């Protein structure tokens, strides 16, 4: 069983990466394989609203006309048993790299062929706020809305603040184990 962790932060040693790593370690401890995708290291462009009506091949065919790394990310998610989306919180919302990916994915999922690539895939969201940490709950609501619209099965959304990251790391590891167990892994120790 495989989990794809999509990380919306370029800091691979930062708070969001630490939270994602806790989830991944829990999943791996239960016998799962983990693939990590670091969005800011990829070429993920923002939606161009191709046609005058604001749509394009996303609406008519379930794919995106932009030639970048998005299809590889979607293919990785489609080939996995579960997905996790870990984002730093900026202005009570998703990081720009996560927003760019999910805005386009949401559009392709408006068509049945686009939606079929991810529909029903169990998904976990992790939103990590620095500073005062107050924006994490709003960010989880935004992430839930987009993932639901795409057809993912949102099994958990975990808001994290820099002040409670150490405590939440244990929760994230347990969530990873539980997710693997639900997919047929070794279960929870």
What layout of secondary structure does this protein have?
Blueprint: E1 2-7, H1 15-29, E2 33-38, H2 57-61, H3 70-79, E3 82-88, H4 96-108, H5 112-115, E4 122-129, H6 136-150, E5 153-161, H7 165-182
Parallel strand pairs: 1-2, 1-3, 3-4, 4-5
Description:
It is built from 7 helices and 5 strands, in the order βαβααβααβαβα. The protein has a 5-stranded parallel beta sheet with strand order 2-1-3-4-5, with helices on both faces. The chain is of the alpha/beta class.
Notable features of this structure?
globular, Rossmann fold, 5-stranded parallel sheet, 19% strand, 189 residues
Task: Kindly summarize this structure in a few lines.
The protein is built from 7 helices and 5 strands; from the N terminus they run βαβααβααβαβα. With 189 residues, the chain is an alpha/beta fold.
- Distinct helical segment count: 7
- What spatial order of strands do you see in the largest sheet? 2-1-3-4-5
Shape: globular
CATH fold node name: Rossmann fold
State the name of the first-level CATH class.
Alpha Beta
Q: In angstroms, what separates the terminal alpha carbons? A: 18 Å
Number of domains: 1
Helix and strand succession? EHEHHEHHEHEH
Portion in helices: 40-55%
Strands, count: 5
User: Strand share of the residues?
Assistant: 15-25%
- Uncertain runs with pLDDT below 50, 5 residues or more? none
Biggest sheet record: 5 strands, parallel
Radius of gyration: 16 Å
Estimated structural class? alpha/beta
CATH superfamily: Flavodoxin domain
- The CATH architecture can be given as 3-Layer(aba) Sandwich
Mean pLDDT, nearest integer? Answer: 95
